[in-house]
Amino acid sequence: MKRKLLIVFLFLPIFLLSQESSNVKLSTGVDFVSSYNWRAIDFGNSPAIQPYLGLSAFGFDFTIWGSHSIMANEVINEKKVAFTEIDLILRYSQTFDFGTLYTEMVDFYYPFMGEKFSNYKGVEDGVSKGAHWINLAVGYQGSETFPLSLKVDFGILNDVDNNIYIEAGYTFDVNKMPLNIFMGLAKGKDKSDLYGIEDSKIALINCGFGTSKEIKITDNFSLPISTQLITNPYASKVFLVFKVSL
């Protein structure tokens, strides 16, 4: 299983790069966020820099994405370190008249924990032993006339409970500005505290809304910004996250 995952993540980008250059697209950029919030979970308790590098061809998208906290708020071996994360994201999508269907595999790796990148161990004796957590998802992104999004996500490697997460979103215009509303549910179990659910039940853990706009700097350059209000009704937590993209 682990070798097959490594082959997928390493071989496919090489294959895409070997194709005709007209079929391959490269992308890069960086976001600056007031805090790194994922599914109403705050990682690092700090503003963060989030760069990415992408490669696309023939319906495949391979992205290397990272988050690097500005402040050192995590404690590893009695020392404070900055939270860091590097994700390998592989997606295959097909677009139809009714929208886009996709499947996605995400490999989460956390360098600040001090584990070697080559450590692809899984769960042993009910405990996560590896340095990587891998999730598999299927999703739908609606068309402009029906801007609904759906996603179902499963933990398939190094996840004690194989957590299940389901999210739905919808975007509409308010005075020519987009407003995105979203709602996420998770299935909890006794062993894992990933989503903070104490027992085996479905809980509403991530919902809120956000908007975005572009600030015109010059005739040829605009600065995208966005803000999200994120809540976790189950844990009674609220977050307000601001992002600038380059």
Characteristics of this structure?
single chain; 246 residues; mainly beta; twelve-stranded antiparallel barrel; two-stranded antiparallel ribbon; 18 strands; 60% strand
Break the fold down into its secondary structure elements and pairings.
Layout: H1 2-17, E1 25-33, E2 36-38, E3 41-43, E4 48-57, E5 60-69, E6 74-76, E7 79-81, E8 84-96, E9 99-109, E10 123-124, E11 127-128, E12 132-142, E13 148-157, E14 164-174, E15 177-187, E16 202-216, E17 222-232, E18 237-245
Antiparallel strand pairs: 1-4, 1-18, 2-3, 4-5, 5-8, 6-7, 8-9, 9-12, 10-11, 12-13, 13-14, 14-15, 15-16, 16-17, 17-18
Proportion of residues in β-strands: over 45%
Pattern of helices and strands: HEEEEEEEEEEEEEEEEEE
What gap, in angstroms, lies between the N and C termini?
A: 37 Å
Shape: globular
Show unreliable segments: none
Biggest β-sheet, characterized? 12 strands, antiparallel, barrel
Structural class category: mainly beta
Mean pLDDT: 89
E-strand count = 18
Biggest sheet strand order reads 1-4-5-8-9-12-13-14-15-16-17-18
- The count of helical stretches stands at 1
Radius of gyration: 19 Å
Q: How much helical structure, as a percent, in the residues?
A: under 10%
Explain what this protein looks like in three dimensions.
The protein has 246 residues and is mainly beta. Helix content is 7%, strand content 60%. It is built from one helix and 18 strands. It has one helix at 2-17, and strands spanning 25-33, 36-38, 41-43, 48-57, 60-69, 74-76, 79-81, 84-96, 99-109, 123-124, 127-128, 132-142, 148-157, 164-174, 177-187, 202-216, 222-232, 237-245. The protein has a twelve-stranded antiparallel barrel with strand order 1-4-5-8-9-12-13-14-15-16-17-18. A two-stranded antiparallel sheet has the order 2-3. The mean pLDDT is 89.
